[in-house]
Amino acid sequence: MLIAITGTPGVGKTTVAKLLAKKLNYEYVSLKDFALEKGCGRRVNDEVEVEIDELAYFIERELKGKNAVLDGHLSHLMPVDLVVVLRAHPKLIGERLRERGYDREKIGENVEAELVDAVLIEAIEEHENVIEVDTTNKSPEDVVEEIVSLINSGIKKRVGIVDWSEVYDEIIPYLRLGGE
């Protein structure tokens, strides 16, 4: 089974994806590294720009039928069996991205994306099997246990469990000023 771990930057994708792969004894695949290795991604400043259709082709050709956890912001756009959309309180995302040195504009974009469910909506538009998991106030290990429990119970769709509309006032500073 191919499992995509996706979400807004700062939700904990890489940590959770690595732990989940280990727990399930699946291969861990960083989409950025995979794209660079296959020649369908290139470094631009601090980011990797990816040709999505080419990347999907290589995923289909080289990973379909294998057990792997795909880690990356674009993993929900790949041909996978299950998409896990990680969510986190927008204020927490703003704080994490500020600690990573993101500029104000990038922090604002990502906080807004989390606020309006951007990644979740894209995932639902692309796939039938989508599970949403709120990582706020949970350890990565607890998040992995929740994902494994959902998979083992046969749940293939669980969305709509997160609603950040009530915290809008808390995150206005991140939208306007990058958290300052």
Protein model, in words:
This is Putative adenylate kinase. Residues 99-109 are annotated as: LID. GO terms for molecular function: adenylate kinase activity; ATP binding; ATP hydrolysis activity. The chain is of the alpha/beta class and 180 residues long. It has a single domain (2-177), classed as Rossmann fold (3-Layer(aba) Sandwich), CATH 3.40.50. It is built from 8 helices and 8 strands, in the order βαβαββαββαααβαβα. Strands 2-5-1-6-7-8 form a 6-stranded parallel β-sheet, with helices on both faces. It has a two-stranded antiparallel sheet with strand order 3-4. A hairpin with a 2-residue loop joins β3 and β4 (47-50). α4 packs antiparallel against α5 (104-115) and α5 runs antiparallel to α8. The N and C termini lie far apart (42 Å). The mean pLDDT is 91.
Number of structural units classed as domains: 1
CATH fold group? Rossmann fold
Q: What Rg is obtained from the alpha carbons, in whole angstroms?
A: 16 Å
How much of the residues is beta strand, in percent?
A: 15-25%
Question: Judging from the principal axes of the Cα atoms, what is the shape?
Answer: globular
Average per-residue pLDDT, rounded, comes to: 91
Helix content: 40-55%
Structural class: alpha/beta
CATH superfamily: P-loop containing nucleotide triphosphate hydrolases
Q: Do you know the CATH architecture?
A: 3-Layer(aba) Sandwich
Number of strands: 8
Sketch the topology as an H/E string, one letter per element.
Answer: EHEHEEHEEHHHEHEH
Give the low-pLDDT segments.
none
Cα end-to-end separation:
42 Å
What count of helical segments does DSSP give?
Answer: 8
The description of the largest β-sheet is: 6 strands, parallel
For the record, the CATH class is Alpha Beta
Strand order of the largest sheet: 2-5-1-6-7-8
